[in-house]
Amino acid sequence: MHSTNELTANSTTAPEDNRLTKTRVRIRIPKEYQEEPVISRLISHHGVTVNIAAALLGANARDDGWFDLELIGTTRQLQSALTYLDEMDLEIWRKSDKEEEGW
User: Fold this and answer.
1) Residues 6 or more apart whose Cβ sits within 8 Å of residue 69
2) How large is the greatest C-alpha to C-alpha distance in the chain, in angstroms?
3) CB atoms near residue 1 (< 10 Å)
4) What are phi and psi of 62, to 5 degrees?
C-alpha cells in the first residue's frame, strides 16, 4: 500500500522519454559565424546525431552557408538543439512531415 506522499511524488515524476525521433531543418549560417563550430556543438553540447543532407558553401568562405540537416535525438535533445540554433539568431526552416522532398 502506498502512502499519499508516495502517490503524489510518483504522479508528478513522469519517466523521461528516451525514444529517438528526427526532424529536418534548413539553416543559414552567416559568413560572420563561419568560425563558430555550430554543427559540432549540436552534437557535443546537445547530444543529437546530425546528418548533413545537403550544403551550399561559397568558395573561400565569402558567402553565407546553407545546410539541410537531419537531427536525430530524444525530444528533449532536439528541443535543446533547436533552442541553441534559435538563440544564435540563425535563419531556420523546419520541414514538416507533410512536405515533400526537395524543399
Assistant:
1) 24, 25, 26, 27, 39, 42, 50, 51, 52, 53
2) 69
3) 3
4) -90, -15
Q: Which alpha helices (DSSP H) does 1-103 contain, by range?
A: 4-12, 38-46, 75-87
pTM (2 decimals)?
A: 0.74
Question: CB neighbours of 22 closer than 8 A, spacing ≥ 6?
Answer: 70, 71, 72, 73, 78
Per the document, the length of the chain is 103
50-103 pLDDT, tens digit each: 999 999 987 776 788 999 999 999 999 999 999 999 999 899 998 755 444 445
